[in-house]
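Bench notes, afternoon.
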Amino acid sequence: MGAEMEQPGEVAGSASGTVYLDHNATTPLAPEAAQAMDEAARLAWGNPSSSHPAGKKAKELIESARESLARLVGGRPEDIIFTSGGTEANNMVIHTALRYFRESQGQGQAVPHIVTSNVEHDSIRLPLEQLVKERLAETTFVPVSPRSGRAEVDDVLAAVRPTTCLVTIMLANNETGVIMPVAELSQRICALNQRRAAEGLSRILVHTDAAQMIGKGHVDVQELGVDYLTVVGHKFYGPRIGTLYVRGPGTTTPLHPMFFGGGQERNFRPGTENTPMIAGLGKAAELVSRNWEAYEAHMRDVRDYLEARLEASFGKVRIHFNSQFTGSNRLCNTCNVSILGSGLQGPPRFCSAVGSPVT
C-alpha cells in the first residue's frame, strides 16, 4: 500500500482532510498527464497507422512519448514497447523466455526453468504457478532473507540449473519497500552466461519489474544491466498503461509477441495504439525525469515524519518497523509497521508509503 499526506481536495472523490494511504497501488493522475490525454483525444484522434494529418499527429505523439519513456529509464526509444500495463509486460517476458529456451534446445525434451523470489507481484507469481501446473515450466521461488528482506544474489544463483532460462526479481518490493540487488545479480548472471555458452547451455535472460521504483528513485537500465524492465504508469501519476523495456528487442534480446494483428509496435505488440493513454504516460515520464530527486526528498521527509510520530505515539516497545533491515536500502515512500499489544482493534500490521506532491 502507499500513503501520501494530501491537502484537502487533492484526491478526487475524497473527503476534506483525507490522508490517502494507497500510493503503491495507484497514484492520482497528474494534472499535466490528464491535460496531455485530453489534448490527444481531441487533436490526435486519427489512427496512428494512417497517413493523413490526424494519423500523423497521433503517430508523432506516440513517438514523442516513446522518447520520454526511454529517457526515464536510460534506454533507447527503439527499446520501448507500449503495453496495456505491468501484467501484460511481465507475462510477455515469461512467454518469451519459454519460447526462446525451446528454440535454443531444438528438439530436446528438457523443461525450462525460471528463478524468481517469493515476494513477487501476482503478475509474475501466478503465471509461473500456472505453467508449473501445466508442466510447461519449472520454477524456483527463492525466499527473501529474514535478515535483509532481500532476495540475496548468492541464493538466487544457487537456484540456477542447466535448464534455467529466466531470472526475474522485482526492483523494489511494494510491501516492505526493500530494494533488491538487481545490478549485482545481472553482473553475476552475465559472467555465468559466458561460461554457459562455452558449455552449450542456453542464455539466462534477466528481468526486473520496476513498477514500484519509477518515480521514487534513480532507474537506469545501463546500470542495472537487465534484458527487460517493466514500467507501470499509474504508479507514478500516469494513466493505467505500461511499457516494457527490452535491450535491443528481437536482435540483442529475444521478444516474442503474445498477440497477432495489424503489425503495430513492430509486430511485438500489435493492436491500434491508445494514443491518449500513451501521451499521458509520456507526460508523466517527463515529470519524473525532471523532478525525481525532489520527489524522493519529499517522500522521504514525509515517511520519516510518519515513522517518528508513530514511535512517539506508541513507544518503542509497542512499535516495530518491519521494513527497516540493517544494510538494506528501501524505497523513500514505504513504511511497513506492526503495533504490538493487547486490546488493539483492526489489523496489527499496516503498510504505508508517501507520494510526491501532486496538486
